[in-house]
Write a structure and sequence with these properties.
transcription; DNA-binding transcription factor activity; Multidrug-efflux Transporter Regulator, Chain: A, Domain 2; alpha/beta; 3-stranded antiparallel β-sheet; Rossmann fold; 8 strands; Methyltransferase, Methionine Synthase (B12-binding Domains), Chain A, domain 1; 5-stranded parallel β-sheet
Amino acid sequence: MYTISHAARLTGVPAATLRVWERRYGLVSPVRTDGGYRLYDEHALQVVRAMSSLVAAGWAPRQAADHLLSEDGGGIPTGDVPDRPTPDADGDGDGTARVGDGDGAARLGSPRASDDDLEALARGAAAMDPGAVSDAMDEAFARGAFEDVVDSWLMPSLQVVGTWWRDGRVDVAGEHVVSATVHRHLGAAMEASDGQADGPLVAIGLARGSHHELGVLAFSVVLRRRGVRVVHLGTDLPAQHWVDVVRRRSPGAVVVGVPMRSDVIAVRETADALHAAYPGCPVYVGGGAQDEVGHGTLALGHTLRAAADRLELDLVADGTTRTAT
């Protein structure tokens, strides 16, 4: 028997998604301990892996669950993943409209979620209701690939929270409720992906004085899920400490987040210090102000999927010439 965190590591499905699939679709029925903890057996893990494969192949979660639970579905596909059924007119069959039906994706990946979806976190912030924020996170990440949901739903939703704050509809306490809840969910996803990483090593974090961590934390999760080993350094790390990390761990690359224009000067200091001490270690930048940094850094772009694609290609391409900004 396996705890939910162990099951998440073994299946590659985040614990939050496992809970949604159980509650919303009745996909599995884990045993409960006297303390209320979920325990999954081998059959449950097989069903979860099958569900994950169907969703990745373009099935709507409701249709995938119905197929696996039906007699015709046979429970668990043992060969090729079955063709995706034609979606119903209302979305995924459970009242949740899907975005991006043009490519048959059962995810929120193109090009953006509905305005109502994007306001879910802001409503939770306005109500100072961490449960509502957590439910919105669970629902969103149960509907698609992690990086797609972050790109098309989470980051735009956080921008809406910022807009509501500027308009006076959300106060600082509400912002903190969202930040803490999102951070907890991303941390759980990071923990769940820990056993999957056995590839090249990358150091990721924020420079001196920078504290907006959610973007770099989400990127760390994406890389770990792709097999990249990540040293996540968190916030507010002075330039010399970045140099110390490279000296001690010898990463194949460094990624510094630049979420705001006010972070640019500190990121330049970090890049200059790293280039001086370790000229062979590439320094990548990501975030809203990445294009303003220059100083020999490599801009990753403004979506997690594209950023991870580029970094992976560079890490595995021996002798590739990189063009710095």
